[in-house]
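$ run holo --ligand "iron/sulfur cluster" --emit tokens
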Amino acid sequence: MSFDPITACKQAGFAEAFLLPNVSYEDWTRHRNDGAFHKNADFVRDDPRVAYPWANACLIAIWPYQPFDDDSVIAPYYLASNTSYHIMQSLIREWNAEGIPCERAETPYRTQLLQAGIGCRMDNQLWYYPPYGTYTVLWGVMLAIEEPVFTESHANKMICNHCGACTRICYGALQNGEYDWKKCIRAYLENEPLPDRFLPELNCFSGCQRCQDVCPMNPKERAPVPDAVRAALDPVEILKGNIRPALDLIGNNRKKQLIRQAIVLAANRHRKDALPYLYTIGAQQGELYKTELQYAFHLLQNSESMIE
Ligand code: SF4
Ligand code: SF4
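-- output --
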């Protein structure tokens, strides 16, 4: 039987997958050159034909997720991203073992899909695909396969009604359908310090999906936060050093990010029981977490009582 990567993706748990031809994405490159994207975009290959000359197709698979009914724990995108990343990596290993040349694509997935007429771009600059709305994670794989059957291109149907709800709820990154990544809290949730202006705004790990949650076009169903997720993401537990369960959920490379956010969240939640652990972190890694510790000490040492 011939290789069918789309069915393989669906069998592995992805909701949909699309096989696209390799073309260049010049508009995307122009935007990048104009500074429109976060520095992570520097690693993206804008012309798959040049970056992956051995490949003749790009598979893009979507993994939807449901928002949680309690948005003070974590933006569920990150859990879905970690889970689906590992599933996609194991598919790639499996296909390589079967002799199919493939590797994870570092390409502009959303642009590729939009250019192929799949889904649409919303005013909050996210990619929308029914019935999941903007609650999806995308992964791409470059492939060399015999006689690829490409997904049929169709015209984008605009779903956004330009109601402005996402702009009104945002901290300032969205203005009239324009997105400024430098003002979006999600751009600062890697391992670097969070800018001062966002410290009081952080209410969950890895967080902000406010522009998605208010969008009237998005599905309204919410999932309960699993007990294990809630326990793993207790900020004081993380500050105590019980960090492994949280890393298992969101990825091993996010340790500094987790500690930074745990310090800020403990402060924002008035968790005075975090103070002994903050002193220890301050003594051992004070310089690394300077911004967050200063913020937390200021808030917790000056707050009256309150342990949640
Ligand atoms: S909230 Fe309104 S303006 Fe924003 S993306 Fe959704 S429909 Fe469009
Ligand atoms: S994720 Fe938050 S900060 Fe970023 S655009 Fe959406 S509402 Fe604004």
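-- notes --
The first helix runs from residue 5 to 12.
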